[in-house]
Amino acid sequence: MLYGKEHVERYQETDGAEGHDWQGTITLLLTTTGRRSGQERTTPLIYQPEGDAYLIVASKGGADEPPLWYRNLEAQPEVKVQVKGDKFTARARTATAEEKPALWRKMVATWPQYDEYQQKTDRDIPVVVLERV
């Protein structure tokens, strides 16, 4: 099973032939710019398409603090995305309170553990919408 750095490398080397399908889900690669370091960081994340956009969840397994990639995109919402061989620039935004319930249900249908993660923390776990620019 691919995970972490190895997952990113195999995904990039094979245009997602290895790494896109992961544990019954589908993953994309999200590249953010470090808000302090200025260095690019790439993370494999479970996603779902939503119209022309893509949805991801900033869960960090239900930790009380958000994942670093989420903090990075809050500071710099222009990100790079790779879905299989499709590489593009996107603008990341947190789903609004009105959008979130339907988008959350869609993501939980993909990865039911998101509900468990939300129960572990008082933090409102965001759904992030990635829109091509």
Describe what this molecule looks like in 3D.
The chain contains four helices and eight strands. With 133 residues, it is α+β, with helices and mostly antiparallel strands. It has helices at residues 4-14, 68-75, 100-110, 113-119, and strands at 21-22, 25-33, 40-46, 48-50, 53-57, 78-83, 86-94, 127-132. Helix content is 28%, strand content 35%. It is globular, with a radius of gyration of 14 Å. Strands 1, 2, 3, 4, 5, 6, 7 and 8 form an eight-stranded antiparallel beta sheet that branches. The chain has a single domain (4-132), classed as Pnp Oxidase, Chain A, CATH 2.30.110. The model has no long low-confidence stretch (mean pLDDT 96). The N and C termini lie far apart (32 Å).
Task: Give keywords.
about 130 residues; Pnp Oxidase, Chain A; eight-stranded antiparallel β-sheet; 8 strands
The radius of gyration computed from the alpha-carbon positions, rounded to a whole number of angstroms, is 14 Å
End-to-end separation in angstroms reads: 32 Å
Principal-axes shape call: globular
What top-tier CATH class fits best?
Mainly Beta
Largest sheet entry:
8 strands, antiparallel
Topology order in helix (H) and strand (E) letters: HEEEEEHEEHHE
Estimate the mean pLDDT confidence: 96
The CATH superfamily name is Electron Transport, Fmn-binding Protein, Chain A
Spans of at least 5 consecutive residues with low confidence: none
**Share of helical residues:** 25-40%
Strand content: 35-45%
Please tally the β strands and state the result. 8
* Assigned CATH architecture: Roll
| CATH topology label | Pnp Oxidase, Chain A
Structural class: alpha+beta
- Number of helical segments with 4 or more residues: 4
Query: How many structural domains are formed by the residues?
Result: 1
Catalytic activity: oxidized coenzyme F420-(gamma-L-Glu)(n) + a quinol + H(+) = reduced coenzyme F420-(gamma-L-Glu)(n) + a quinone
Family: Belongs to the F420H(2)-dependent quinone reductase family.
Protein name: Nitroreductase family deazaflavin-dependent oxidoreductase
GO molecular function, one term: coenzyme F420 binding
